[in-house]
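Hello forum,

I keep getting stuck at the same step: I have a sequence, I want structure tokens, and every attempt I make locally crashes halfway through. Rather than fight my setup again tonight, could one of you with a working pipeline run this one for me? It's a single chain of 210 residues.
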Amino acid sequence: SKIDPSVTRQRLVLGCKPLLNDDFRQQIAAAEEFYFLKTHELPFPHYYEGEYIINIVRHPGAATWSYFNFIKDFSPHLADGLTVSDIIRGNTPGAMPKTSWSEHVEKWLACGESVAPRFLSYSYEQLSITEAEFCQNVSTLLNLDIVNEIGSFPSFNKWRKQDSKLFRQGQCGEWRAKLTADEIALLAHCHGSTMDKLGYRDDAPVPLSQ
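Reply #2:
Ran it on my machine without issues. Output:
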């Protein structure tokens, strides 16, 4: 470890999902070492004592536009004929996730209720402006000390220079200039209830074109 040379740290490799059976999950949940698993998948059916969830949510407009571009750049064989409206409706055959934005979010929120208080939900929009608050919340949740100085995270531009497709813009409101009025209306039509729940209904409703 760069923080403490006397500590040997282990990590799970990319694509480790097949390893995460119940026995192995209970083993690492009980370990003193912390393992962080980043996923876009749906939650496990059950969480064990020692497993915590940090759930990052994002405005459906931003999530839709980001995912649409991700598919075009990294899975072009799935992008043929794919529209933004398909993404909004959750019609992405062969792609992941297999659910719409609201279905995905609601499953994670329901999971959070079942494991509370081992659950922290935080918005991408909050995180972009309140790094210190987010770090403190994670520190409290996991009882982990904040080691590096707040504000020391690498800038978005650093990551974008490494991979401009994966790290495209890093802006919260880019989608507003990219989605059409009908697509924005479709967001509210398909996901309005969940948007209200998360405080994302910040635009006046726009009627869907016939």
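Confidence is low (pLDDT under 50) at residues 204-210. If your local run keeps crashing, start a new thread with the error log.
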